[in-house]
Amino acid sequence: MPRREAITGERRQVAADVRKAYAELAARPVTRNCALRAECCQFLLTGKTPYLTKGEALVGAQALKATGRRALPVREDGACPLLDPVSAKCLIYDSRPFGCRTHFCPAAGGPYPRRDVADLIHKLEEIARRLGGSEARPLAAAIQEFLG
Ligand code: SF4
């Protein structure tokens, strides 16, 4: 199989496996109440930025491309570049990274206990190794890699 096709096929499988991990998380009985306030998307104010594994970054980049964009939007206010300044909603909410699903937002119920999601974190790290590395990176840099 030509190398390009092989890469495309592997990425398709990686994206499917990341989405499966997200679905597994959603099926867990930890009560969450994300009301889309987007307070946790204000990185400058919270002082916290989600870190993404390569698989999560791939899924995020694919979701952004699906909105018709080819580059990360620029934010001057230190908020997440994926937070739409017009709607104040996440541009990739259904594909948002793991950290955005298990975050620290007190209004949504606080962080998931690590013991409840450690297996999924390890799974995402394993998936990332198939793309050449398991080290998580800050959201913008991680997604940028798959927008080129
Ligand atoms: S990816 Fe979406 S949910 Fe996560 S911080 Fe950015 S705008 Fe918020």
Biggest β-sheet strands, sense, barrel: 2 strands, antiparallel
Number of helices: 6
Provide the helix percentage: 40-55%
Name the beta content range: under 5%
Structural class: mainly alpha
Bound ions, cofactors and other small molecules, one mention each:
iron/sulfur cluster
Extract low-pLDDT stretches. none
Global outline: globular
Total domain count: 1
| Distance between the amino and carboxyl termini | 23 Å
Average pLDDT, all residues: 90
- Please tally the β strands and state the result: 2
Sketch the topology as an H/E string, one letter per element. HHEHHHEH
Radius of gyration: 15 Å
Oligomer: single chain
**Strand order, sheet with most strands:** 1-2
Could you characterize the architecture of this molecule?
- With 148 residues, the protein is mostly helical.
- The chain has one domain (3-35, 49-74, 92-144).
- It has helices spanning 3-26, 43-46, 54-66, 98-101, 114-129, 139-144, and strands at residues 51-52, 137-138.
- The protein has a two-stranded antiparallel sheet.
- α1 (3-26) runs antiparallel to α5 (114-129).
